[in-house]
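Support reply, case 0932

Customer input (verbatim):
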Amino acid sequence: MESAVYWLPLVWVGLIGTAVLLYVVLDGFDLGIGILFPAYREEHERDIMMNSVAPFWDGNETWLILGGGGLFVAFPKAYAIIMPGLYLPVIVMLLALVFRGVSFEFRWVAKPSHRIWDAAFAGGSIVAAFMQGVILGGLLEGIKVENGRFAGGMLDWLAPFPIFTGIATVAGYALLGATWLVMKTEGEVAEQARAEARLLFFAVLAMMAAISLWTPLELPYVWERWFTWPALVYLSPFPILTLVAAFVLWRGLETRHDSWPFLATIALFTLAFGGLAVSNLPYIVPPTVTVWDAAADPSSQMFTLVGTLVFLPVILAYTAFVYWTFRGKVREGEGYHH
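Our regenerated output:
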C-alpha cells in the first residue's frame, strides 16, 4: 500500500501532463487558425482554413476534459486551491471556447451573412489562447496557500508575468496554426502562412527565451533546479534540442519540406512543456503543495485509473484514425461542410 501511495500520484501526474500536452498541441493549431483568421481577407481562403481543421477540432478538446477531470479526481486539494485562484481566466477561456465552437458550426449555415461568426471564431480563439497562457503564468508564479487552502485574491493572476505568458501562448499557437497551414494547404493560403510562420518563428523564440530567463530569476527554486552542478549537465539536452528543433523548423520553411515546420513546432512545445515539468515537479501547486500532499485516497485514484486506462487507448486509436483518414493537403472547394 505504501508503494501505491507513492506511485499512484506520479502515474496521474504523467497522465494529466500528457493530456495537457496533447491538448496544447492538438487544439493549439486550430486555435492558431482562429488567431490568424483576421489576416486572411478572402472568403475562399477562410473556407480552406476552416476545412483544414474541420475533421479534427472537436476531437482535440477531449484532452482538456481529461486534464481538468484528472486534476479534480486525482488531486482534489490542488483543484480546490488552483480553481479559486484562477476562476476568472478559466471561465473566460471556457466561454471563448464555446463561442469558437458555435461559430465553427454556424459560419457555414449563416452564409453569406456570416461576418459575426468570423469575428466570434477569431475572437474566441485569441481570447481562449491568451487565457490559457494567463492560467499557466498564474500557476507558475505561485498561488498563495495558507494551511493547505487558497489564501490569495481573485485578481492575483493580473500581474506582468501571467500577462506575458498569455501573449506568448497566443504567438505560439499562431505559429502552430501557420505551420499547420503550410503542411495542409496549397497556393496563396500556404504562401501567406509560410511568410507568417517566418515572423512568428522569431517572436516565439524570443518569448521562450524571455520566459526561460524570467522564471529562474524570479523563483529561486527554479534557479537551483537548473543552474547548479550537476543539474546543468543533466538538463543541457533541453536547450540543445530546442535549438535543433528551431533549426529544423526554419530549414523546413526554406526548403519547402512542408511537414517539417509543423513537427518542429510540436517539438518546441514539447520541450518547453518538459522544461516546465523539470522546473516545478514534484510541486503541483508551485512552490508549496506537492503531488503527494494533494493526492486523493489511493482507492479512488486506482478506481478512476482503471477506467482511464480502458478508454485512453480507444481515444488515441480514434484520434490516429481521423488524422490518417484526412491526411494530405486540403484543396479549394474540398471539405465536408457542404
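We compared this against your earlier run and they match. Two observations from our side: The chain has one domain: 2-325. The mean pLDDT is 91. Please reopen the case if you see a mismatch on your end.
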